[in-house]
Amino acid sequence: MSEKLDGVRAxxxxxxxxxxxxxxxxxxAWFTAQLPSVALDGELFMGRGMFQQAVGIVRSKAGDxxxxxxxxxxxxxxxxxxxxxxxxxxxxxxxxxxxQVVEHIVCESEAHxxxxxxxxxxxxxxxxxxxxPAMQYEQRRTNNLLKIKWVDSDEATxxxxxxxxxxxxxxxMIFDLGAGFTNAVRASLPAIGAQVSFAFCGTTDSGKPRxxxxxxxxxxx
Length: 221
Hints:
single chain; alpha+beta; D-amino Acid Aminotransferase, Chain A, domain 1; six-stranded mixed sheet
């Protein structure tokens, strides 16, 4: 198990950073020059509670990457199970200052997981990732990789604008989203049709998300 980092998912293909949807992140040359010419999967992470700031940097062609670090949790082209691939990534990143392997520990019991989760939450972290150590690399949702978070998050589609808010469609549920908007977002609301990420605390009896909070426009993937 490891901390679930609140960063931007990115694949380093040995030459450049690619988003989950195949878009390129324009990392500066001084950053990429340090990385090995092997494929690595991870998160471009700026720190707990800094997700929106990280998104703003990585989607800009002239962003300041000095506070960004690539936290690696897999090596797609390496041989062996997850444990072996993690060791491969660790070896590949020796002496690299802009990247590091995400620390993993063995989950000994459900009580151990609960304690670890509470520690991460107390530090302001988002949650915990659980991985089957025998898993092969997969780029899809799988029972070999589980997320445990104290809040839920998902994506919705913007269908209308309101004053300082947008109306979104989430799996057929229509609701307004405005909490979490910065002044910059309010000044330029996400476009109709845009995909936005939001956090929420469970759902109501009618199925709508409780206390939905805007996280980011998903225009960086």
